[in-house]
Amino acid sequence: MGQYMFGNLKGWEHFPDIAPKYKILVVGKNFGAGSSRQQAVDCFRTLGIEAIVAQSFAPIYFRNAINSGMAIISFEDAGARRLLERLEDGAELSVNLQTGELSFPGRRTGTIKCAPLGPVLLSIIEAGGLFEFANIGGWKL
Predict the structure, then answer these.
(1) Do residues 36 and 60 lie in contact, with contact meaning Cβ atoms separated by under 8 Å?
(2) Residue 82: its H or E element
(3) Who contacts 49 (Cβ-Cβ below 8 Å, separation ≥6)?
(4) What would the pLDDT profile of 55-96 be if each residue is shown by its tens digit?
């Protein structure tokens, strides 16, 4: 499924070829808007993307990502946005979901404070998704 991602968007046709080199995707505002299907999250996972950092997420996409165990985090600070816009492809970025911080190992840029996820959402991500989380709790789905 991932091999078709963005195939209809001019300039992005080769995204599936380059995505496997990266683990974290940094995107802009209202990411995932217009897509309520689970495949919109699963495509990134099939390409090896482990986390998505966005200025904001569309609500349905946000929940679908959490439910599938995708690590996601959002930032609102304008300074953070400017710093992330200057990132070069392949720059090292570290995401700490527990503290809600982004850092740049090897750079003196400090950390970016993001919106931390609550304990339940973190537990769902750590379990690998909503169904796995339910199984840990002994619920039968």
Answers:
(1) yes
(2) helix 78-85
(3) 19, 22, 23, 24, 25, 70
(4) 999 999 999 999 999 999 998 777 677 777 777 777 788 889
Q: What CATH number does domain 2-136 carry, 3.20.19.10, 3.40.50.1980, 3.40.50.300, 3.40.50.12780? A: 3.20.19.10
Separation in Å, CA 50 to CA 11, 23, 68, 82, 108: 23, 5, 11, 23, 24
The DSSP code sequence of 99-116 is: TTEEE-TTSSS-EEE-BP
CB of 41 closer than 8 Å to CB of 47:
no
This prediction's pTM: 0.82
Contact 97, 122 (CB under 8 A): yes
Give residue for tokens 């990132």. 87
Q: 48: which 2 tokens?
A: 């090896």
Instruction: Return the closest-CA partner of residue 112 out of 93, 134, 140, 132.
Output: 93
